[in-house]
Amino acid sequence: MTTLQFLDSLDTKHQVQVRAQTVFVDGVPIEVRKQAQAGFVCTQNGHSERLIAVANGDTIYVQLRGRSVKLQRVDPTRAARAGSTGGDGASHAPMPGVVVALLVKAGQQVKKGDPLLVIESMKMQMTISSELDGSVKELPLAVGQTFQRSDTLVLVIPNGDAL
After folding, report:
1. Based on the structure, what is the number of domains in the chain?
2. What is the DSSP letter of 89?
C-alpha cells in the first residue's frame, strides 16, 4: 500500500492510499483504470472521470477538470523531514517542459498559494504556486522557453529579506 497526501486548500490536507486498482481518498474508494500513457479513468458510484497523472519521484501530478493537484508520497523512513517542504521559496521544474504563461513580475508581492506561472509538460499544463508569502525575486525563464527537470522556475523570498 502506498500513502500520498495533497492539499485541497491551504488548510485542508487529504490522505490518498493506493491498493491494486483502487485508490482511497480520505477512506472513500475510487476505481482507477489506465487508458493511455498518462491517461486514467476513475470511477466512483458509477460516475466516471478522465484524468492525467504523471509521476516524478515521490510526487505525482494529477490533472482533473482543468485543475492540477500535486500528490506527495508519504515515506515513513523520512518522517522527520515530513513537516518541512524546503520553504526556501525556489520552485523547481518537476519534469522537462516549456513556460506557457508568467502570472507575476519580479518584485511583485505574493502570498502562499498564489499562482506564479503556468508550465506545460507531456501535453499537460500545471500552475506553479508560491510556497510562502514574500516577493518574487527571480523569474529566470520567459514564455516559450524550455527547461529541464529540477531547473529553477521562480524564486520567491520571504517578506523582510532583501531583493
Report:
1. 2
2. S
